[in-house]
Amino acid sequence: MKEIELTAGKQDETIETIYFGGGTPSLLSKTELNEILDKVNAFFIVSTDAEITLEANPDDISAASLNLWKLAGINRLSIGIQSFFQKDLEWMNRAHDANQAEESIELARDAGFTNFSIDLIFGAPGLSDSNWEKNVMHVIAKKVPHISCYALTAEPKTALQKMIEKKKTPGIDADQQARQYLLLMQWLEEAGYEHYEISNFALPGLQSRHNSSYWQGKPYFGFGPSAHSYKHYTRSWNINNNMAYIKSLEKNIIPAEKEILTPVQQLNEYIMTRLRLNTGLDISFISEKFGTDAAAKLFDAAAKHTASGKMITDRRRLYLTREGKLFADGITADLFFGKL
Question: How far is the C-alpha of 1 from the C-alpha of 5, rounded, in Å?
Fold first, then answer.
């Protein structure tokens, strides 16, 4: 909390959202949550309708914990369900079981949480299209307000990657992931969900305000080891060593490194973040901020993607099509500028 005090004296923005995560913030006691929120309110101007989200796993959710979080001021949950099938959860080595995954939604609603999100994983070895459909249709039937869906990845040096290398589990099937992502988009959009960001779907009016601020380039403050902050094209990040972090704050020094983005980096970051959104790239903004030549070059670079059906344009904006979202990373990299 010392970092909050040291940061606040230099800021004048109104805080619109507060997010407890990653890690396991659901382990915080009501007293600890209250102390953090009280500190934020004491040193920042916090909007009266601020979205305050807590990440929680189904095994941490009970009537008692939900009541505690509500009393502390939490008004939105992000629940890491991943799957409603026991086999999938065991394979992913999740701490919760299928019953807890199911119950977490009902418990949240019973506690009065009308705004919450769940995470689902697709493209995992052994996840059939049929079971993926059952997962998604279950969420639709329950009218879950917000859904974040991610393709399973095998990061270097992880247990999963080592198991794949040793042939103890099948590798990632790119065709399966693409197929299940296309099915996901179709099912959720037909059910009335807005696909407002590559991995995120929401019922009308229930987009994640916090995560949306990242993709819209708004400033944000991150507190704690490894936390990142962003403001006025300056990005900073705290050291990830807990003891070094604490010792630095004891000396009234925020243990962070920072970089100021160059105009080229600013443009590339704009392309990267806005292309993830259903609102796409605003060509007039690029023209005004980075020059008409930059806007023209971007259109030229995008031409082959519009010709292939992966992007569309109305001459004012550029968007990814449903198929284009399968290739979002590659298209984004192809549109990046080396210089202005």
Answer: 7
